[in-house]
């Protein structure tokens, strides 16, 4: 009787795990942002480990446990590497916008609100109290423009898929 | 630490005497020698050792219990038709200050109901925690301070 | 008798574990943003696969398998929070925002 129950639960588990696997794969494909996809991949590894355990139980090959441990190791390293990749890829569109807003707010706080910060000539011409900060922000802006352009290239595949 | 070595040696002696080097026998020998040591704990001055074992064990049990509870809670939340979420990130003033204690606390927080540690401040005094239900932040802070943090302080100090 | 009991325990663990894994996958779809999804994946998913490994250990029952399965479970319990923490930290640093229904954000400087 007990082995019948075990057989039933193995079948049940295989069905549920397949459904979970499918849902997670769909999330990897769709997932609106990159961290979403990475999280889904992490979850995929966890589901695969569960799969391996159930298969190992069904077939009786205990060697599968080692496979599961190795898979867990690789999955963990992959997640860590992907996290580094997110960091290396730089700010998102939203984050960049937020930073720009904050910067402009800071500028309007330090300088007089009547100053227009968008043209370089004005800032230089103006005999302001803090020429150093003004120059700094201007040079930052110049430095930033080519950077944003170069960052756009790795983003393309994400919007496509 | 010295008594731990004695404990291990006694367990090895047990394994040699019973001529069986399986893992189960080793654990049994370890428990047995710990029990033997606890009988003479007054004489060899090992009271601290046993209360420390007890506290680490209670931390472990609390952790396992909270882990299962958190999984059940998230699972129930996911099934509910109307998820009443109030997520948010709140700051938590750390009492523990050693690196391994902070790491342990952050890991424990991540695996407990509704909370996930996101970041530690530069000066290592504040832990930023993401929670699924931020309607009562002070209550969560109190739970962590009186649950895990107190247990960690007890187990490692 | 003992074998039958171990089988029933293993069966219950399998059912519970696979249900957890499935609900974690559902949670990935139903929760609103990356941070809340992390709760689902890192906790429920870990407990699910851990339970399945323990069920294998309970069913087979010889020492080497039990040790390896336990080592695997401990390993997952150690690494899951680290990867979740790392991912959450990085995505916050890079600027992925919290969902609109969030109530507090004390990390914002």
- Helix/strand-derived class of chain C? mainly alpha
Total number of helical segments of chain C? Answer: 3
Estimate the helix proportion of chain C, in percent.
Answer: over 70%
Q: What is the CATH topology assignment of the largest domain in chain A?
A: Helix Hairpins
The string of secondary-structure elements of chain A, in order, is HHHHHH
Rg of chain A, rounded, reads 27 Å
Query: What fraction of residues of chain A sit in β-strands?
Result: under 5%
Q: Please give the radius of gyration of chain C in angstroms.
A: 18 Å
- End-to-end gap of chain A: 50 Å
Q: How many distinct beta strands of chain C? A: 0
Number of helices of chain A: 6
Largest interface (CB < 8 Å):
A-C, 61 and 57 residues
Family (chain A): Belongs to the CPA3 antiporters (TC 2.A.63) subunit F family.
Organism (chain A): Ahrensia marina
Membrane topology (chain A): Multi-pass membrane protein
InterPro entries (chain A): MrpF/PhaF-like
Structure explained in plain terms:
The complex is a heterotrimer of chains A (161), B (157) and C (109). Chain A is an all-alpha fold and 161 residues long. Chain A has helices at 2-30, 34-59, 64-89, 93-110, 120-125, 131-160. Chain B is mainly alpha-helical and 157 residues long. Chain B has a three-stranded antiparallel sheet with strand order 1-3-2. In chain B, helix 1 (2-18) crosses helix 2. The radius of gyration of chain B is 21 Å and the shape is elongated. The mean pLDDT of chain C is 84. Chains in contact: A-C, B-C. Chain C: InterPro entries: PhaG_MnhG_YufB. Chain C: The chain crosses the membrane at residues 6-29, 41-60, 66-88.
